[in-house]
Amino acid sequence: MAKLDIIQIIEGLYLGSLDATFNTAGLQEEGITHILTIDHRPLNASQTELFQYKYIHALDLEDTDLLSQFQECFDFINSAREGGSVLVHCFAGLSRSATITIAYLMYLKKLNVEEAEGIVRNKREAIKPNIGFMRQLHLFERMGCVIDKTSGLFRKYKLCQLAQRMQAGFLEGSLPSDILMCNPLDATDKTDAVYKCRKCRLALFRESELISHTIGDGESSFDWRSKVPTTNHHCSEKNVKADNLNSTLVCDKSLFIQPVQWMSNTITSQEGKLSCPKCSSKLGSFVWYGEKCPCGAWVAPAFHIQTSKVDKCIPHPLVAVSAPVTTSPVSSSNTVYPSLTLVTSADGES
Ligand SMILES: [Zn+2]
Ligand SMILES: [Zn+2]
């Protein structure tokens, strides 16, 4: 029989190709107890019956979302390595399975992409994660090698993934519910500043839902694919100092936000207007493929609220003026939003 196309990366973790999975006896001789398939179809029962098996559906395409599957793969690999060994494979053992293997090393040993890739390449020289997977690995590094699906970086990534599907016309049915932020009134954390409709005072979104971008940063402003915040982009003189201090130049010209629940019926088309769900006054617009901020940055996808249409309200804990001293401590849920507070300056947009 031909040589088994698997290679040990670290103790209990092997990387290989689909070919190797046909030689079940050979795998057993190597001590393989678990198989993780990352491919467009699972293995046959005859290939898996002797092993603990997990299948992740994924094509070797740039826009395939492996990042969302990382943790599930890590958990399986971890369980395999408790006394056994796992073979991680795709078709050729070069792109998809190599990406998962690199990500696992990053997560396990807190390595950056280059370090983890180096370890894997040292064992299997031909590995070649596709460019989309490399971007996901770099994003994973920026996330601190931790998958936190509630983090801003992860949400932005999912939003950009969705935007790509929208642009390609691949969105079937309604928007995935986890992509929409909850309406401010439903939020459990009331410590966040809230932006209210200037006309009817309805709370529209929270400050934490604002998506910042760097000034005039070009095509990649919002894009999760830009590996690191650009520091040497074109900038005005006053910004040079900030650049020297290595700080990110965040635009304050416009309010771009993550999509919120109340938009769900509106934003299923490619672009359109955003209106207050209560008083219907016009608030801004959305364009899935992106739009240009007045600062010159290209922002995609864009959910744009005009600063002149909303007021920013900072919550205050209820001050117990008339309450006796014996009342329980003020909790974060006991907050009020003053009806008239800090008003963001109008930015002259129409
Ligand atoms: Zn309103
Ligand atoms: Zn801007």
TrEMBL record:
It comes from Potamilus streckersoni. One of its GO terms (cellular component) is cytoplasm. GO terms for molecular function: protein serine/threonine phosphatase activity; protein tyrosine phosphatase activity; protein tyrosine/serine/threonine phosphatase activity. Pfam families: DSPc. PANTHER family: DUAL SPECIFICITY PROTEIN PHOSPHATASE 12, DUAL SPECIFICITY PROTEIN PHOSPHATASE 12 FAMILY MEMBER. Keywords: Cytoplasm, Hydrolase, Nucleus, Protein phosphatase. It catalyses: O-phospho-L-tyrosyl-[protein] + H2O = L-tyrosyl-[protein] + phosphate; O-phospho-L-seryl-[protein] + H2O = L-seryl-[protein] + phosphate; O-phospho-L-threonyl-[protein] + H2O = L-threonyl-[protein] + phosphate. The lineage of its organism: Eukaryota, Metazoa, Spiralia, Lophotrochozoa, Mollusca. Residues 64-127 form the Tyrosine specific protein phosphatases domain. The active site is at C90. This is Protein-tyrosine-phosphatase. InterPro entries: Dual-sp_phosphatase_cat-dom (IPR000340), DUSP12 (IPR016278), Prot-tyrosine_phosphatase-like (IPR029021), Tyr_Pase_AS (IPR016130), Tyr_Pase_dom (IPR000387), TYR_PHOSPHATASE_DUAL_dom (IPR020422). Residues 5-146 form the Tyrosine-protein phosphatase domain. Belongs to the protein-tyrosine phosphatase family. Non-receptor class dual specificity subfamily. It is found in: Cytoplasm; Nucleus. Signal peptide: none annotated.
